[in-house]
Amino acid sequence: MSTTDAKREIFITGLRNAHAMENQALSIIKPQLQRIENYPEVARRLEEHQRETQGQIDRLEGVLSELGEDHSTLKDMALSLSGSMAALGHTMAGDEILKNSFANYAFENFEIAAYKSLITLAEIGGYHTALGVLQANLKEEEAMAAWLSDNLREVTTRFATLSEAGETAKV
């Protein structure tokens, strides 16, 4: 395998992994949105990020298509299932909103790392037309991570206040 072929294979694998990762993100967001009641600002931001995530998936599919490739249905299904299971696991916790907030923040940072790596692969592989898409996706993930970080104190405070008042604090 030539160096060019190896770079292409690594880049395509990374794009497919990112596509699956974004499907996993949707499978994490959707169950949270169905359960949120007392945190409207979190629900609004998750709804916005759900739309962003779908846009990211569409953009990744465009890059793959331009390269004559397709996403990996198997990876998409496997990661979507694992995301659904992770979200389901938090529903049992009395502090579900906090656990979801922690997990969302960690996942956003995982996505940020993945896009930074993909941008590097695009640069060294000469896939310059993909850079705009990858940078747009990275910017959205960084914005979501920043929002989660900036709002963790408020979510935690609201959770504690609702718990103390004997109200539904879970979600």
Primary descriptors:
171 residues, mainly alpha, Ferritin, 5 helices, 83% helix, elongated
What would you note in describing this structure?
The protein has 171 residues and is mostly helical. It has a single domain, classed as Ferritin (Up-down Bundle), CATH 1.20.1260. It is 83% helix and 0% strand. It contains five helices and no strands. The longest helix has 34 residues, at 131-164. The protein is elongated, with a radius of gyration of 18 Å. The termini are far apart. The relative contact order is 0.17. The model has no long low-confidence stretch (mean pLDDT 88).
- From the N-terminal CA to the C-terminal CA, the straight-line distance is 52 Å
- The total of helices stands at 5
* CATH evolutionary superfamily: Ferritin, core subunit, four-helix bundle
Tell me roughly what share of residues is in helical segments: over 70%
Radius of gyration: 18 Å
Look at the structure and give the CATH class: Mainly Alpha
Strand tally, please? 0
| Series of secondary-structure elements, N-terminal to C-terminal | HHHHH
What is the level-2 CATH architecture name?
Up-down Bundle
Helix/strand class: mainly alpha
CATH topology: Ferritin
Query: What best-fitting shape do the alpha-carbon axes yield?
Result: elongated
Strand coverage percent: under 5%
Output mean pLDDT: 88
InterPro entries: DUF892_YciF-like, Ferritin-like, Ferritin-like_SF, YciF
Protein name: Ferritin-like metal-binding protein YciE
Organism: Xaviernesmea oryzae
Pfam families: DUF892
